[in-house]
Amino acid sequence: VNAFDRSVRERTIQLVTIIGEPGVGKSRLLNEFRETIDARPDIAWWRQGRCLPYGEGITFWALAEIVKAHAGILDSGTGAEAKLQAVVKPLFADSTTADWVKARLSPLAGVGGASDDVDQAELFSAWSRFFEALAARNPLILVVEDLHWADEAMLDFLEHLTDWAVGSPILVVATARPELYSVRGSWGGGKRNAASVSLSPLDSEHAAVLLGALLETAVLDASVQQAILERSEGNPLYVTEFVRLAGDRGLLQDAAGIEDLPPPGSVHGIVAARLDLLEPEEKATLQAAAVVGKVFWLGALQGIRPAPDSSALVRNLVRRELVRPVRDPSMLGQEEYAFSHSVIRDVAYGQIPRGDRAHLHEAVAGWIEAVTGPQGSDSAELVAYHLGEAMRLSSDPDPELRMKSYRVNMQAGDHSRGLNPVRGAGYYRSAADVAQSGKDRAVALLQLGRLSQDPDETRPLFEEALALYRDVGDVEGEAVALHAIAGFLWWRGDTAGADMHGAKALDLLDELPVGTAKATVLTGGVSAFFLRGQAAEALGLAEKAAPVVAAAGTT
């Protein structure tokens, strides 16, 4: 609250990071803060996103959730571009600036991918301008949950925003486990506008207060209370989950029974004991929801595990306080729920047999694609994660699963390459690994080579793609690969090698149909002649290229 008041009073950006182990109360503190803000008469914008626990995180997922929420864009809805335009245009007096910002926000809103010509510094600048313009209208609170799961690029942007936003009443609040500091040891350090709130376990007195409040009674056998407090080691989630378990197992009168419960070294044991008391159908429903993620949809459960009473089963889980409804669904027409705590989701997921997990992940991927449709390019990374898990968990992935994984990884690479080239390269690498044909692998290798940060890796990638294209007799692919090698050698200073490969690509022109490949080779040849000072040759080839480029619809 003090940090928010300071940001409003001084019109500065403030960063507060809430650090704590699972179950210590980060989300509760955040909820209490929101209630405090909501109770105030002045208007403040609260925008919230979460980092996903999938590998190193999906590209700027939390930021995308924030932008979509402000624009009213739902994952299964339509009109995303018009909605984004409607919120960006009024923020800037200059239409050119508005268009510039909107174009760079579009990948976050699911409206196409970022251009390869726009570097990350320019994206960060545009996104910062957007948030600064929002804060000029109303104080802005940006909440990022589970920052320990964010990738490096997301952390870079938040630090950029904190360092460079000026004259803007913005409060950035992040929740994270201590693992954040193993990823970014300097997080928040040395910044006058940054603070950390470290949540430690409750002492015995406060743990006893919490226990009494949860039990709604001040009278509890002293030995039972002592056993609970010793077992909890001050972890609020353990105390809370124990009381819920006790209601089902009648342990409040038996200290010896409490001693038989799992220790809270992680809270997983006590949560697992609660889940073991669920009816089989309830437990299976909760496990299916855990595969979807910390947030899930009723439609997803009905799609991946059809049951006539799915809605009633989820309501039972709500009553048991294992999950809770989400008041602002992110998908059009879908009932949305969230696990009450990520530990509950982790335990439920861990109890699923390996083979069943694979089938469920594949089913979730299919449901997401069916709901988001062709416009769901921004969900490609999420689909790629689920199919990747299905591949990893399958002892012998079938050809159809491999084909779907290849297609979606290519789509995810196309979407993320402009936002985070390292992430895009990872998707192309995954696509190359699961490709079932030489041509498919060559396409992925070419894209990977274009994004590779290692020059020693780039040329072998291009040359393998060239060999694969030649093996299958794909002249278009061969020409494009030769063009890529020529460009790489030029920038490495090997002009002779570049000229040789460029000439080989031009030699194939007569065999190429009008299309993108022919346009690429021709324009590459124009550039090569021009850079060598051969103006007449460049102009002659440009005249030949112009109608091909126009027919191919390229730039």
Could you walk me through the main structural features you see in this protein, from its secondary elements to its overall organization?
By secondary structure, the protein is an alpha/beta fold. Helix content is 61%, strand content 7%. The strands form two sheets. The chain has a five-stranded parallel beta sheet, sandwiched between helices. Strand 3, helix 7 and strand 4 form a beta-alpha-beta unit. The relative contact order is 0.08.
How are the elements arranged and paired?
Elements: H1 2-10, E1 13-19, H2 26-38, E2 45-50, H3 61-71, H4 80-88, H5 95-105, H6 120-137, E3 140-145, H7 152-164, E4 170-176, H8 180-183, E5 194-198, H9 204-215, H10 222-232, H11 236-249, H12 255-259, H13 268-275, H14 280-292, E6 295-297, H15 298-304, H16 310-319, E7 323-325, E8 336-339, H17 342-350, H18 354-372, H19 380-393, H20 399-416, H21 421-434, H22 438-451, H23 455-471, H24 475-491, H25 495-507, H26 516-531, H27 535-552
Parallel strand pairs: 1-4, 1-5, 2-3, 3-4
Antiparallel strand pairs: 6-8, 7-8
Helix pairs in contact: 5-6, 9-10, 9-11, 10-11, 11-13, 13-17, 14-16, 14-17, 18-19, 19-20, 20-21, 21-22, 22-23, 23-24, 24-25, 24-26, 25-26, 26-27
